[in-house]
Amino acid sequence: FSNAAEAQRLQDRARAAGFSAFVEPVRTENGTLHRVRIGPVADRAAADGLRSQAAGNLGVSGIVRPHP
């Protein structure tokens, strides 16, 4: 999200749905973006399952990324 408040709203919705979620600011050449991350989980299979749950419960699509 380019708007931090929008990212915060999604984080709040995710937490209300029972997910562990946080906002990660990401600096780009076009300014700061705000990435909403859910997790972490132990392995790829669990991450894929979490992505499916988030899509179903929150209506958002996402990608699986390693946790820093």
What structural keywords apply?
two-stranded antiparallel sheet, 24% strand, 68 residues, alpha+beta, 2 helices
Query: What Rg do the Cα atoms give?
Result: 12 Å
- Termini separation (Å)? 20 Å
Number of E-state strands: 2
> Main sheet: which strands, in order across?
1-2
Q: Could you tell me the strand content as a percent range?
A: 15-25%
Describe this entry's structure for a reader.
- By secondary structure, the chain is of the alpha+beta class.
- The protein has helices spanning 4-16, 44-58, and strands at 21-28, 31-38.
- The chain has two helices and two strands, in the order αββα.
- It has a two-stranded antiparallel sheet.
- β1 (21-28) and β2 form a beta hairpin.
- The longest helix has 15 residues, at 44-58.
- The protein starts with a helix and ends in a 10-residue tail after the last helix.
- The mean pLDDT is 94.
In a few lines, what is going on in this structure?
The chain is an alpha+beta fold and about 70 residues long. It has two helices and two strands; from the N terminus they run αββα.
Give me the secondary-structure topology:
Layout: H1 4-16, E1 21-28, E2 31-38, H2 44-58
Antiparallel strand pairs: 1-2
